[in-house]
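tokens incoming
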């Protein structure tokens, strides 16, 4: 199959391109800028697209491909305004899907569990649960989902929407990398009293699921995907520490006090993620597509720890 991958030089995109090439697909990689040949598989056909939401001939980008996996987005930049988030995360996706009309059979869009909200309470999210994003990023992804659904229906494109939770693995950035740094430093974390439930997904599991969504004839609509296990934050810290060969230093502190401290320190969102619940159910992908995550949580953390050690060395 001939597949276009946007955001191909990113954290998920690099791993996905390797996975698709390993499965025998022909991959056209849309890159924002030139990257060293060692960073991406040599079998890729590279196209430089400096601004995925800018003005350029998208028909040339999609011509001759059977499927599109649209990963390009803004995710972890807090200094980006709502207008720029909408332009890149929503408008770019809509314009790409419109260019694909009549030429491309399937469009796989990487969304986020954030379209459901920030905290699942004591329950577990499914694809049928209400959509109530709590931040600009989640709202931009939901707007893109809705517009793509309408465009796909009009153009006869098979649309697949992927909603992962926090993604970790080699080359991870942002909050998970900060957590690795903190645990590796040996400094204690005041999280021993947290009793929450969080879903995560190892990047190897995510790209395996995306490849299945590209290939499987029954793949349509939204899918929540995650690792098999749901863990509390203290348990996650303990297992990361074990993967790093470090002791887990956890101190008790009331979660309510942590949330107040987070607001005072300007870290409200980070504390909410560390103390809140966000568990998801991947049952739809398992039943409909017979998908199972190939890596366990511990295997994913071990791979991440090996990369972290190598990068720090």
């Amino acid at each position: 199959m001939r597949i276009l991958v946007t955001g191909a030089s990113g954290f998920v995109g690099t791993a996905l391109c390797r996975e698709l090439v390993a499965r025998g697909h022909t991959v056209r990689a849309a890159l924002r800028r030139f990257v060293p040949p060692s960073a991406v598989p040599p079998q890729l056909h590279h196209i430089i697209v400096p601004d995925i939401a800018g003005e350029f001939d998208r028909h040339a980008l999609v011509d001759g491909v059977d499927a599109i996996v649209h990963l390009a987005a803004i995710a972890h930049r807090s200094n980006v305004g709502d207008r720029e988030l909408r332009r890149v995360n929503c408008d770019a996706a809509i314009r790409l899907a419109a260019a694909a009309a009549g030429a491309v059979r399937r469009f796989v869009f990487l969304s986020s569990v954030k379209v459901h909200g920030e905290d699942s309470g004591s329950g577990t999210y499914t694809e049928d649960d209400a959509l109530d994003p709590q931040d600009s990023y989640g709202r931009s992804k939901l707007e893109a989902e809705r517009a793509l659904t309408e465009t796909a229906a009009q153009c006869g494109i098979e649309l697949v929407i992927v909603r992962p939770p926090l993604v970790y693995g080699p080359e991870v950035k942002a909050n998970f990398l900060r957590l690795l740094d903190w645990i590796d430093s040996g400094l204690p974390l005041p999280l021993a009293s947290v009793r929450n439930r969080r879903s995560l997904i190892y990047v190897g599991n995510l790209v395996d699921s995306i490849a299945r969504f590209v290939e499987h004839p029954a793949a349509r609509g939204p899918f929540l995907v995650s690792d098999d296990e749901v863990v509390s934050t203290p348990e996650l810290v303990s297992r990361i520490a074990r993967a790093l060969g470090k002791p887990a230093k956890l101190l008790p502190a009331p979660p309510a006090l942590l949330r107040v401290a987070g607001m005072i320190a300007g870290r409200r969102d980070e504390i909410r993620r560390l103390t809140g619940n966000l568990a998801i159910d991947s049952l739809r992908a398992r039943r409909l597509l017979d998908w199972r995550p190939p890596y366990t949580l511990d295997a994913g953390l071990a791979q991440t720890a090996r990369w972290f050690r190598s990068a720090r060395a």
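note: The CA atoms of residues 197 and 232 lie 5 Å apart.
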